[in-house]
């Protein structure tokens, strides 16, 4: 059975389905190496702290995929059919492609719910998707990045503007410095000319300008705990040195992420917030995009552009 619809594989990092599956998830992230009991406990504790052992990323990704389907249907009903594929949890990227094949899909687009391209992130999602698609005879075209799409910049700029106002009010009208951030990666990405850093700076610059943010800088967050060096400075260090220099109010704008999840709800809202309290400064973060209509528009446009490259 052949199907004229274009399949859309919507890919995201993935999160455990329950506390029982945290070990399997962590082992998958570590490429098959099981974590030590201490490492596992630390991760379980972080999930328990953010939402009492539920996994907000799962519901957020589900909602993003269904909102995107709705958005694509308003353009042309039935032309696009969305499938979910996760990097480190079920349904895996390969599961999503297999479901397309079962539905008779012959042509598909792949897109990752992360705006910036890196050889260590988006490239590996796309590679897994294309390899599985080839096995099933599906023609697939993948989106590499959409970090400067005007709707994305507008959505982020609105959030930065709102965040500046909220933190400034909390800080008695003090000037707010914006800290754009993203997930750190090992420094070795620089040896392969990876565009990740450059794209993140481009997004930050465009959002700062659109939001008319007076003062801003870029910093990293959530570096892995491995023996190799990771990109820095980390947001904790950046906060310390800015506080030392007399800065009174900071707004985190994690533009490398699109959902409420562990790296935002724990690393920023709990860890960085506690650090700000110790430093005696005001701190806040922008609202995440989740299913924002402007974000859905960004994804839909990028999908249509990739679909135009498929053979007819
Ligand atoms: C580039 C990048 C993104 C952004 C782009 C994208 O979205 O793809 C991202 C997002 C996320 N990372 C997440 C979670 C985790 N990432 C880890 C570890 C790692 N991330 C890495 C990279 C990235 N990660 C890397 C190179 C490692 C080291 C692995 C190794 O050892 O080689 C670990 C292990 C423990 C730790 O180190 O903290 C966890 C638990 C969650 C889900 C949170 C939830 O469930 O709510 C999300 C959205
Ligand atoms: Fe990660």
UniProtKB/TrEMBL annotation:
<comment type="pathway">
    <text>Porphyrin-containing compound metabolism; protoheme biosynthesis.</text>
</comment>
<comment type="similarity">
    <text>Belongs to the ferrochelatase family.</text>
</comment>
<protein>
    <recommendedName>
        <fullName>Coproporphyrin III ferrochelatase</fullName>
        <ecNumber>4.99.1.9</ecNumber>
    </recommendedName>
</protein>
<dbReference type="InterPro" id="IPR001015">
    <property type="entry name" value="Ferrochelatase"/>
</dbReference>
<dbReference type="Pfam" id="PF00762">
    <property type="entry name" value="Ferrochelatase"/>
</dbReference>
<feature type="binding site">
    <location>
        <position position="263"/>
    </location>
    <ligand>
        <name>Fe(2+)</name>
    </ligand>
</feature>
<dbReference type="GO" id="GO:0046872">
    <property type="term" value="F:metal ion binding"/>
</dbReference>
<dbReference type="InterPro" id="IPR033644">
    <property type="entry name" value="Ferrochelatase_C"/>
</dbReference>
<keyword id="KW-0963">Cytoplasm</keyword>
<keyword id="KW-0350">Heme biosynthesis</keyword>
<keyword id="KW-0479">Metal-binding</keyword>
<dbReference type="GO" id="GO:0005737">
    <property type="term" value="C:cytoplasm"/>
</dbReference>
<keyword id="KW-0627">Porphyrin biosynthesis</keyword>
<feature type="binding site">
    <location>
        <position position="183"/>
    </location>
    <ligand>
        <name>Fe(2+)</name>
    </ligand>
</feature>
<feature type="binding site">
    <location>
        <position position="125"/>
    </location>
    <ligand>
        <name>Fe-coproporphyrin III</name>
    </ligand>
</feature>
<keyword id="KW-0408">Iron</keyword>
<dbReference type="GO" id="GO:0006783">
    <property type="term" value="P:heme biosynthetic process"/>
</dbReference>
<feature type="binding site">
    <location>
        <begin position="46"/>
        <end position="47"/>
    </location>
    <ligand>
        <name>Fe-coproporphyrin III</name>
    </ligand>
</feature>
<dbReference type="InterPro" id="IPR019772">
    <property type="entry name" value="Ferrochelatase_AS"/>
</dbReference>
<feature type="binding site" description="axial binding residue">
    <location>
        <position position="13"/>
    </location>
    <ligand>
        <name>Fe-coproporphyrin III</name>
    </ligand>
</feature>
<feature type="binding site">
    <location>
        <position position="30"/>
    </location>
    <ligand>
        <name>Fe-coproporphyrin III</name>
    </ligand>
</feature>
<comment type="function">
    <text>Involved in coproporphyrin-dependent heme b biosynthesis. Catalyzes the insertion of ferrous iron into coproporphyrin III to form Fe-coproporphyrin III.</text>
</comment>
<keyword id="KW-0456">Lyase</keyword>
<dbReference type="InterPro" id="IPR033659">
    <property type="entry name" value="Ferrochelatase_N"/>
</dbReference>
<dbReference type="GO" id="GO:0004325">
    <property type="term" value="F:ferrochelatase activity"/>
</dbReference>
């Amino acid at each position: 059975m052949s199907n004229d619809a274009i399949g859309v594989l919507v890919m995201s990092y993935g999160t455990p389905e329950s506390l029982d599956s945290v070990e399997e998830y962590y082992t998958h992230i570590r490429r098959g190496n099981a974590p030590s009991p201490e490492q596992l406990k630390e991760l379980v504790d972080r999930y328990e702290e953010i939402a009492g052992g539920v996994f907000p990323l799962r519901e957020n990704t589900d909602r993003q995929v269904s909102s995107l389907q709705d958005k694509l249907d308003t353009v042309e009903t039935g032309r696009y059919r969305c499938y979910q594929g996760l990097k480190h949890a079920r349904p895996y990227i390969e599961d999503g492609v297999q479901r397309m094949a079962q539905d008779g899909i012959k042509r598909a687009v792949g897109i990752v719910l992360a705006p910036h391209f890196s050889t260590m992130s988006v490239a590996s999602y796309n590679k897994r998707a294309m390899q599985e698609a080839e096995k099933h005879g599906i023609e697939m075209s993948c989106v590499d990045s959409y970090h400067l799409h005007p709707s994305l910049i507008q959505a982020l700029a609105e959030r930065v503007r709102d965040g500046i106002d909220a933190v400034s009010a909390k800080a008695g009208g003090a000037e707010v410095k914006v800290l754009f951030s993203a997930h750190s990666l090992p420094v070795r990405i620089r040896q392969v000319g990876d565009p990740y850093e450059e794209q993140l700076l481009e997004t930050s610059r465009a959002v700062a300008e659109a939001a008319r943010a007076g003062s801003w800088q870029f910093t990293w967050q959530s570096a892995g705990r491995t023996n190799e060096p990771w990109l820095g400075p980390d947001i904790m260090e950046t906060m310390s040195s800015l506080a030392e220099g007399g800065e009174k109010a900071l707004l985190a704008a994690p533009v490398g992420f699109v959902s409420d999840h562990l790296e935002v709800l724990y690393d920023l809202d709990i860890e960085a917030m506690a650090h700000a309290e110790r430093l005696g400064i005001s701190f806040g973060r922008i609202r995440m995009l989740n299913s924002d209509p402007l974000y859905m528009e960004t994804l839909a446009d990028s999908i249509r552009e990739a679909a135009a490259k498929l053979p007819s």
